[in-house]
Amino acid sequence: MTEWIEKLREWLETPAARFATRLFRILFFVAVLGWLVLKVRAIGWRQVLDALPTNPLFYILFLFMFLALPASETVIFRIILGGRILREFPVFIRKRVFNSALLGYSGEVYYFLWAQKHLGVPAKKILLGIKDNAILSALASAGVTSALLVAFLLSGRASSVARWLDSATGGLIAGALILAFVIPVAIRLRRQIISIAPRVALTVFGIHVVRICLVVLLQATQWAVVLPQEPWTVWLIFLTTQMVVSRLPFVPNRDLLFLSAGLEMSNVIEGPREAMAGLLLAGGALTQGSNLIFFLLTSIKRRSGTPDAEAEAEAGALDADEEIGPRPAR
C-alpha cells in the first residue's frame, strides 16, 4: 500500500498529472455550468431574473458571511504561530479565495509559502499549525452538520425530501453527499494527532464552532429575508446540504455544486420555485464575483519587497496537487 502511494505521489508531480488536474477542473466547471443552465431554463430565465433579491440586507449579510472565515483564521493563526492581525487579514482573504475558486487545499499551500517568507517560523511548525487548524475545523464542521441533521430529522420535513429522493438525480446527489460527509472525516482523522497544547486546541475548536454557527444563522437569515413565508424547517434542508457539500474533498467550486443541488431541491419549498432559484443564483454569483473583487483588492496594497514573495506563493497555490490536511469548513 505504501509503495502504491509513493508511486501515486511521484506521478502527481509529473506534467501529465498537472495537466490532468487542470483538465478535470475545467471539465467539472463546464459540466456543473451546463447543468445549472438546464435547470434555470426549465424554471424560466425571465421568472428567475425577476425574482432576484432586491433587499440590501441580503447582500450585507453575504459580506459578513464571506469575511467570517478569513477573520476567524486570522485570530487562530495569531494564537498558533504569532504575527500581526491587520497585516495577515488580507492574506487569509486571499487564502479563502484560492480554496473557493481553485482546487481544494490551494489556499493552504499559498498560506504555507507566504508564512515561510514573512513569519520567521520553521516550516514544520507552519505545517503542523495548518494541519491542526484543519483537523479542528473538520471536527467543528462535522459537529455542526450532525446537529443540523438531527434537527432536520426532528422537524418532520423528511417526507418532503423523500419525494425528491424518488428521482434518479436526487438519489445520486444524496448518495454522493452522504459519502462526502462520512468518508473524508473517517479517513482524515485516522492516525491524526493534534500537536498544539490542549488548551490552545480547545480555543481553536471553539472559534471554529462559533464561526460556523454564526455563518449558519446568517445564511438562514439571508434566505428568510427573501422568502419570509417559508418555515425554518425548509432552511434546515438547504443548510444541511450546504454544510455537507462544503466537506467534499478535491472538488473545485463547491459553491457551484451546491447551487446545482439547491436548484434540484427547490421544489420542496412552498413558495414560487423561481424565487428560490433567483435567491440561489444571486448567492452563487455573489460568491464568484466576490472572489474576483477581493483578490484584486488584496493585490492593490503590497509591502515593499512583498510582490516577489506573493507571486511565488500564488504560483505554488496554482500548482498544488498534494493535500496538506483536511479542508477548513465554510
TrEMBL record:
* Region annotation Disordered: where it falls in the sequence: 307-330
Q: Does the keyword Transmembrane apply?
A: yes
Q: Where are the transmembrane segments?
A: 20-38, 58-77, 134-155, 167-187, 199-220, 275-297
Where are the annotated coiled coils located? none
UniProtKB keywords: Membrane, Transmembrane, Transmembrane helix
Compositional bias annotation for Acidic residues: 309-323
Determine if Transmembrane is one of this entry's keywords: yes
Descriptive protein name: Uncharacterized protein
